[in-house]
């Protein structure tokens, strides 16, 4: 059987009507902009030298989430380089757990706090306490806006452009389906950014002329229990018209494969799994082995951990945020071997570690 990569989409393109061919060609050209190697550093070149001896708390939304875990590892690596101590508190996927972690963080009176992977609005009361204490805050995926969020007191929210991530995922599915995708979208309304990403996927698919069969709101924290039965029910409901499963995070697909296998669907069969973030280790493994995931639009999680430390260093010293938006990467079986793919992550070969170390004087 042919491997379903860009090559298959080109075969679909040649078989399509002229109108479809143009639309598919345009969509794939947009996707391929994000599929190449990342060899040039496009981040900050100046900034403050390292503040010495700082103690930082990382509030992780849920360390079972591959994106959050990847960013946490990057933060720890960067902290070692800059010479800071890190205390990671796991919110364990619940609002109550994250509230408790915030309380622990305040009791530690750290020099800075990193919110990692949950919506800042959820913990507004705790954020007010942090602001009152004068503790600088930076975040990863704490809202739909990149950069400063004065309302929440966040110095800088770090992310790729979530709308570009979702659009790239939608365009790949459209092209892969020969211009006629039937899509189910999975999201979690607990998070503003998740809704924004899912809405952009839907907008992209429908604008291109594809079909959104269903928009499924199911909590990320419950994917292990919900996704198997959801997958079976959706297969029964839509059958062969369901060509692509699309989600705002790879974690949804951690638990879809067994239900697809039980229905007799091959690992590279339809519905194809396409994730608009974040490029988890398990997603890379599934894509490499053609086992129930075709694409992830990956974020440079380790790089973003370094950026969080750099932004916090700027905040502590009263500087402006760097203004940097990190690159995204469309990962398929065709390009999985470069930019960190051999280690199951998107780790750009653009020298970011050396660049940040040089800024910090380390």
Structural commentary:
The chain is of the alpha/beta class. It contains twelve helices and twelve strands. Strands 2-1-3-4-6-5 form a six-stranded mixed sheet. Helix 6 packs parallel to helix 7 and helix 11 packs parallel to helix 12 (352-360). The longest helix is centred in the N-terminal third of the chain and has 17 residues, at 66-82. The N and C termini lie far apart (51 Å).
In short:
This protein has 362 residues and is of the alpha/beta class. It has helices at residues 6-15, 18-32, 66-82, 95-108, 124-133, 162-176, 192-208, 223-238, 257-262, 281-288, 301-316, 352-360, and strands at 55-60, 85-90, 112-116, 137-140, 147-149, 154-158, 182-187, 211-217, 244-247, 272-275, 295-298, 329-331.
Rg result: 20 Å
- Secondary structure category: alpha/beta
Shape: globular
Kindly state the mean pLDDT as a whole number? 91
Number of strands: 12
Q: What is the fold's blueprint, element by element?
A:
Layout: H1 6-15, H2 18-32, E1 55-60, H3 66-82, E2 85-90, H4 95-108, E3 112-116, H5 124-133, E4 137-140, E5 147-149, E6 154-158, H6 162-176, E7 182-187, H7 192-208, E8 211-217, H8 223-238, E9 244-247, H9 257-262, E10 272-275, H10 281-288, E11 295-298, H11 301-316, E12 329-331, H12 352-360
Parallel strand pairs: 1-2, 1-3, 3-4, 4-6, 7-8, 7-9, 9-10, 10-11
Antiparallel strand pairs: 5-6, 11-12
């Amino acid at each position: 059987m042919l491997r379903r990569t860009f090559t298959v989409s080109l075969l679909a393109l040649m078989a399509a009507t002229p109108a479809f061919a143009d639309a598919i060609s345009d969509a794939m050209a947009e996707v391929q902009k994000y599929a190449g190697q990342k060899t040039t550093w496009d981040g900050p070149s100046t900034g403050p030298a390292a503040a010495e001896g700082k103690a930082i708390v990382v509030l992780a939304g849920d360390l079972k989430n591959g994106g959050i875990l990847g960013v946490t590892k990057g933060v720890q690596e960067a902290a070692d380089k800059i010479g800071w101590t890190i205390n990671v508190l796991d919110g364990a996927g619940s609002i109550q757990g994250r509230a408790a972690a915030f309380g622990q963080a305040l009791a530690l009176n750290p020099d800075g706090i990193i919110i990692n992977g949950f919506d800042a609005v959820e913990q507004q009361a705790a954020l007010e306490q942090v602001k009152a204490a004068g503790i600088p805050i930076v975040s990863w995926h704490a809202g739909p806006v990149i950069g400063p969020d004065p309302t929440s007191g966040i110095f800088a929210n770090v992310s790729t452009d979530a709308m570009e991530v979702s659009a790239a995922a939608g365009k790949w599915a459209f092209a892969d389906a020969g211009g006629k995708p039937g899509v189910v979208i999975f999201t979690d309304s607990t998070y503003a950014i998740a809704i924004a990403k899912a809405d952009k996927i839907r907008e992209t698919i429908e604008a291109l002329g594809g079909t959104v069969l269903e928009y499924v709101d199911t909590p990320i924290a419950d994917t292990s229990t919900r996704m198997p039965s959801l997958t079976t029910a959706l297969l029964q409901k839509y059958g062969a018209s369901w060509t692509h499963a699309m989600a705002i995070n790879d974690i949804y697909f951690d638990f879809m494969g067994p239900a697809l296998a039980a229905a007799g669907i091959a690992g590279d069969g339809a519905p194809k799994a396409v994730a608009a973030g974040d490029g988890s280790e398990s997603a890379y493994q599934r894509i490499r082995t053609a086992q129930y995931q075709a694409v992830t639009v990956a974020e440079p999680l380790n790089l973003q951990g370094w950026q969080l430390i750099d932004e916090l260093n700027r905040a502590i010293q009263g500087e402006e945020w760097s203004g940097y938006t990190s690159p995204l990467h469309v990962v398929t079986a065709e390009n999985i071997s470069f930019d960190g793919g051999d280690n199951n992550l998107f780790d750009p070969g653009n020298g970011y570690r050396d660049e940040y170390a040089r800024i910090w004087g380390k």
